[in-house]
Amino acid sequence: MIRASGLMKSFGHVRAVEDASFSAADGRITALLGPNGAGKSTTLRILSTVLKADSGEAWIDDHEVAADPMAVRRNIGVLPHAAGLYSRLTARENIAYFGALHGLKRSILKERMDGLVERLDMGEIADRRVAGFSQGQRIKVALARALIHDPGNVMLDEPTNGLDVMSTRALREIILGLKTEGRCVVFSSHIMQEVATLCDEVVIVASGSVRFEGTPEGLKACTGQADLEEAFIQIVGEAEP
Amino acid sequence: MSGFAIVLAKECRDNIRDRRTIVSSFSLAIFGPLLFAGLIALVLNTTIGESRDGFSLTVVGAENAPGLLAYLGTQNLQLTEADLDDPRQSVVDGTHSLVLVIDDDYAERFASGQIAPVALIYDSSSTGKARRNLSIARQIIAGYGQQIGMLRLHLRGIDPAITQPIRVHETDTASSAARALSILAVLPYLLVLLIFMGGFYLAIDATAGEREHGSLEPLLTLPITRSQLVLGKLAAATLFSAVSLVLFLVSLRLSVPFVPLQQIGMSLEIGIVACLQIFAVSIPLMVFGAALLTVAASFAKSYKEAQTYLTMVILLPTLPLVVTQLLNVEPSDALMLVPSLSQASLISDIIKGETLSYARIGLSVLGTGATAALLCALAIHLYRRERILI
Asked: Residue A233's CB: how many other CB atoms inside 10 A?
């Protein structure tokens, strides 16, 4: 479970996140939706403990991110904006590095790795070096790396960026699978179609603050629009001065 | 395994697969001594040894001075007797490089004990061995003149010593290894540079490279303390630096015997004990170097930027060496606290075979170790700031 309350973050004079408050439950997929530069990535970075909020609090399960970052890190799996793999290591080595740093024992690591390789359909690429992988293959490896320690909470920053139709569809299946397993999944996106087909909850962020929190159906009802995209535009448009 | 060991192992494995890192870390270590020995051997061989090789002298009017000719004949040089109408022109033309002209009245003046003139014609602007040949010719002719002069004094019943009121005896107390070191003086300097080069690319790859590839952010979401992470990276750079030094010492030990130092009365043997000593006194410097490079590279956002910074940073530790050399500063206890300078000085003592002062080794370890610890702390601090990601 992920909860954020009044998160605020500035870089110099630029206020990236103004007032981010939302919650994401276990066994549900929550989308952070917003235009470019709305503060989605910064919010996720605060939740994943790599940035510290200037004010506000956030909890992953029962751990506050600033107060107990180590406990938080043990309970999250993160797929950052750039996949960020080591190109001279093989897919397995990339995954194993993170698994080892999570303190997994060799036997458990191997078992989980084999499971993930099969589930993400990486059999052919698992023992190849990452240099030269397609974007879809990279995302798979990065995702396996984020799941190797079996985290209860998964955060994905624009995971479908740069993926072709087939890879997007495969990724969608995987994300739905994570939900079925009872994990709390939060992903950021600016693609309406993706949100409509995947998520249970929508959190609309614009200019650094949350403008709407609820189900896609609730969003339509609230704005009186039948189309999600129109509803989104209406909400975001209100936010513009 | 602790986080530290996992990071260390990963950085080593990752960088061993990088050709750029391997080439830059180890090629200087392996080929540096070979190149070094080869160059010195070349210099020694051209300055000494068969130095009169290719020395040729053209003599005009040889029949006027059979004594001088006989003397020249004993001097291991190529003599050509010629009958030139215009010897000056032949040098200008380049047909002859050095012409000795013996005048027709040489014999008469020589016999009567007057100054007998000979002329040397040369072109000092010509390249190649002209200058060297000229000085050889002058020496030989002067040597003959001196010999004749002594004989003449003897014949007149005078001790030739009268023409030499003072004679200088020179005694060089430097050991032959120490004399060799004057040629090999750049060796400690090279070793210090090498220690820094060894970890150069790994330090960049583990910091700025990781930032550039976007792998730092997911890494920072893992339950590993920043100190373990940074120290693991530092240890990997230190290890590469150590391997680089070991390779260098092995290569040096194998190539030094090929330098013909004994030809100039010098000897240099870098034994296994000396190698171990050099390695041991260098350990603090390796940590220092790895930490310095890591700190500098942490400010860079990309590989290229880091390369630019580090190329400047790598010159930093060589500055004390250059300054003390230029100002001719004697090594003192206080200077032993300066990283790189103290190691260069200790390494130089080891190569010379001098007894090592434990106090100085202690000061060196203390000074460099403390500075290295400070830099490590600074590197960890830099990684605790979120600026490292932005």
From this structure: 15
CB-closest option in A50, A82, A93 to B220 = A50
Q: Measure in Å the smallest separation between the Cα of B374 and chain A Cα atoms.
A: 25
d(CA B56, CA B101): 14
Check whether residue B186 and residue B279 sit in a common domain. Answer: yes
Q: Which fold has domain A2-75+154-239?
A: Rossmann fold (3.40.50)
**SS3 per-residue string spanning A187-199:** EEECCHHHHHHHC
d(CA B224, nearest CA chain A) in Å: 7
Residue B218 counted as domain residue: yes
In a domain, B171, yes or no: no
Question: What range does the domain containing B378 cover?
Answer: 3-45+176-388
What length is written for chain A?
A: 241
Write the residue in B1, B10, B221 that is nearest to A76 by C-beta. Answer: B221
Give domain status of residue B51, yes or no: no
Whether A142 and B218 lie within 8 Å, measured CB to CB:
yes
- Report the residue of B207, B221, B389 to disrupt the A interface, i.e. the one with the largest count of A CBs within 10 Å: B221
Residue ending a domain, among B163, B197, B223, is B163
Question: Do B145 and B197 sit in the same domain of this protein?
Answer: no
* pTM for the full predicted model: 0.80
* Same structural domain, B23 and B68: no
For tokens 């005078």, the residue is B158
- Tell me how far apart the alpha carbons of residues B178 and B349 are, in angstroms, rounded to a whole number: 9
Q: Could you read off the pLDDT of A34-88 as tens digits, one per residue?
A: 888 889 999 999 999 999 999 999 999 999 999 999 999 999 999 998 889 999 9
In a domain, B169, yes or no: no
Residue A102: its chain B contacts at CB < 8 A? 222-223
Q: Give contacts of B17 with chain A, Cβ < 8 Å.
A: 88-89, 129
- Say whether B14 and A86 touch across the interface (CB within 8 A): yes
Other beta carbons within 10 angstroms of residue B325's beta carbon come to 12
Contact A49 B220 (CB under 8 A): yes
- Domain end among B116, B137, B163: B163
A143 touches chain B (CB under 8 A): no
CA distance B209 to A75: 27
Q: How many helices (H) and strands (E) does chain A have?
A: 9, 10
Return the domain boundaries, chain A.
2-75+154-239, 85-150
DSSP B89-125: HHHHHTS-SEEEEE-TTHHHHHHTTSPPPEEEEE-TT
State pLDDT tens for residues A156-212. 999 988 888 888 888 899 999 999 999 999 999 888 888 888 999 999 998 888 999
Which residues of B fall within a CB distance of 8 Å from A86? 10, 14, 213, 215
Question: Beta-carbon neighbour count of residue B113 at 10 Å?
Answer: 10
B219 contacts in A (CB within 8 Å)?
A: 84, 101
Walk along chain B (390 residues) in steps of 10 and give the mean pLDDT of each run: 92 92 86 84 64 74 87 81 84 84 87 87 75 82 88 87 83 65 74 90 92 93 95 96 94 84 71 92 95 92 90 86 81 86 89 86 95 96 87
Do B90 and B205 belong together in one domain? no
